[in-house]
Amino acid sequence: MVHVNHIALVVSDVGRSLGFYTQVLGLEQTYRSDFDRYGGWVSAKNVDIHLIKGNPVVHGPDNLIVGHIALEVENVEDAKTKLQEDGISYRMNSTVPNPTIKNGVVNQIFVRDPDGYYIEFCECDSLHEYGKKLEEERRTIVSSFSRAVGIKEKFIEIIKRTKERTKCPNEIEDISPDFTPNHPVDETKLENLLKRRQVYGDIIQPIEEKELRKLLSFTMNDVPKLIQILKKRNSLAKEQILVPPTFIETDGRFLQPPVFKMPIS
């Protein structure tokens, strides 16, 4: 593969969509072969968007966990002001790629095109910088670790621990209904687990603090075993509970989308 050439969107009215993508979003109309289809083209600089006449298939309005096109902007607040001036409704979401750091929040604004496709405005380049920083930190840790410990000995230790922590789910004992916590809870580990509740899709997300305390006490603060118990629960239930992020409407109202269950095999 060389690169992504274009994205195709099926729209009900090509002229109306062209007006939205050029006049509202500020993309540039381009001219390419339409093959045997009636449509139009706009350029998003690093990729083109092909608007093809047909029956659109779009996500509903329940939450912002949707397929979308993300447009990088220099300042999200400026983009929000421009949308307000143009009378364009939007929803704002806060993504938390790393809840453990103060600047680990990326604000996103979502608008819908005339057919209902979602378009995102974000300052996403900061995520690339954050990812690069993480990679550099990991390389430093691995390098230091390799110098301090013999690779062969550490490899044997890792294999041993992995076998202990990745037992078949049926071998992982769950908490009985009448279990009474009696082992002291590691508050630092609890705090770290609670931070994971901010991350959409994390297995910890729907678990309340009281239940996490019981699990930590039951496992004697063994977090990998705690995770295995939760995986076993999901496996037996054949589903995972997901809590979509809260978003903000144009009028400033905070909305919490409904929790939903996703089947797992």
UniProtKB/TrEMBL annotation:
Pfam families registered for this protein in UniProt: Glyoxalase
Protein name according to UniProt: Lactoylglutathione lyase
Classification via InterPro entries: Glyas_Bleomycin-R_OHBP_Dase (IPR029068), Glyas_Fos-R_dOase_dom (IPR004360), Glyoxalase_1_CS (IPR018146), VOC_core (IPR037523)
Sequence ranges assigned to domain VOC in this UniProt record: 3-124
SUPFAM superfamilies xrefs: Glyoxalase/Bleomycin resistance protein/Dihydroxybiphenyl dioxygenase
Keyword Metal-binding: yes
Coiled coil, from the record: none
Underlying gene: LGUL
GO molecular function (one): lactoylglutathione lyase activity
Keywords recorded for this protein, A-Z: Lyase, Metal-binding
Keyword Zinc attached: no
